Amino acid sequence: MSAKERFRLKRFSYHGQLSVVVIDDVTDLPALLPLLYMQSWGLSKAINTVQQHMVSICQWYNYWQCKHHRSFDEMLFETDQHGFRTLAPLNALDAAMVDYTGFCVYIDSGQKSIDANDDPGFKPVIANATHDVRLGCLTQFLLFLARRYVSGRYTQLTSKEQRTTFDSYRFRLQAARRDVCGRLNIRKRTTFSQVSQGHLVVRERSLTPAETQAITVCARPSTSKQTNPLNPWQRHVDQSQVAAVQIRNHLMIRILFNYGLRLGELLLLQTKSLVPYASGAGNALAITTSEGSGDPRQAPPKLKNAWSERLIELAPEDVKLWELYVDHLRGNPPHPFLLVNTRKNHAPLSMRAAQNVFDALYAALDQHFPALCCVNLGGTLTTLNAHMLRFTWATDTFEALVERDGCDFEAAKDRLRQLGGWSDTSPMPQKYASRYIAKSANAANVRRISAQRRLHKQSKPKQQEGGQP
DNA sequence: TTAGGAATAACTCGATGCTG
DNA sequence: CAGCATCGAGTTATTCCTAA
User: Fold this and answer.
1) What is the CATH architecture assignment of A209-377?
2) Which of A59, A236, A264, A280 counts the most CB atoms within 10 A of its CB?
3) Domain range annotation of chain A
4) What pTM, to 2 d.p., does this model score?
5) Is the CB of A238 under 7 A from strand B?
6) What is the pLDDT of residues A200-211, one digit of tens each?
7) What Å distances lie between residue A286 and A251, A259, A274, A356, A413, CA to CA?
């Protein structure tokens, strides 16, 4: 038969509730197992969710038809070679696990190819997120089947055996899914302490000047005169929001880099947090709690401690950027918070969304500056998060306080404590101080060694030195 | 000095609204 | 309607602060 598209989706109304089923074109009836799944799981879910799952299952059924020339339903209900019917569903599930890879090829190729073509230039036609959604839904469906056909109705297992059998299916299905999961394969992130491909990645949690520079370049928003092809926020469902996203993220990154805020403090900023500086010109940033502001977020950010409340002077160009964003791009949401998401309601930016900004930024760095990120090319930047900008800020600020402003170490530590919102007894400023000492000691050491080498070179023509003392 | 607590980070997964 | 972006939530590890 034309193996192509034996199964399709159909919407129907069930007791007044709109729902979706997978229709088998051969019998013109709903496929049995998806129907059971929909009935026992899908009725309590929103139509979009059910549809999401049914789309995945439908593609799976079409794939199965292509590959094995019979439907997945038939596979589950046939008798095995010994005439036992009871084990057939479980055998089918075992077979399904093997076919995860083939299914990935099928959906990645736009449901055309079932062969694993090892073409290196092969480019999936769907995004990784979609790929993972498909696999996740399919796995959930297969787990539903496992739970159903392991149960006492279909097997003679004791309840304990049922549980272990089902657990084994759950484990194996999840493992199979994990193996082919698109996002996991793209982002192989490791933490700093972990060994990556044989060699240990050693680095501070602050950024090097090269990395800082790369981030600044990537975060620069496009203007009408000049677009920035490195900016990771080029596309958006609502194209009119692209400028808002770019400016907002640029503002976020600038504030974090220049003033070392914690992420929670950043998200608590309000439009009225920018106050004219008491003594003379300039503006200051007031970091404070937002009591009574009616934060609509599920998990509103909180200040870490009482010392976090502070006043920071803002550079003029940041003030301009702030005003540009507030006046023209932020919209007019009913809440007072500075940073908003790009949905229609312009709700305050959530913790999660803010972290996604850094995920996207890291993806851009990975793409455009592989030498910084890829371990094989000598890069050490294996992850990026908002707190790393704070570390960077603290290190740089301490250095500037000592070298430019001529503070002694105690004064610099106190100043840093005040600017960064650490408590009176916090050991953190000490940490940055010792980091600076280590750094300058290293620099002095390098200078000493190279001076020595020069000296050695000069003395060399005169006489050959003996062994080391 | 250390135990415990709160915030943050890292990693997933599920659910749902939005738009071309 | 397909695909995607985004949000909510759960779990665990790590960081930072407080108080004993």
Assistant:
1) Orthogonal Bundle (1.10)
2) A59
3) 7-186, 209-377, 386-459
4) 0.68
5) yes
6) 444 555 677 787
7) 16, 12, 6, 25, 21
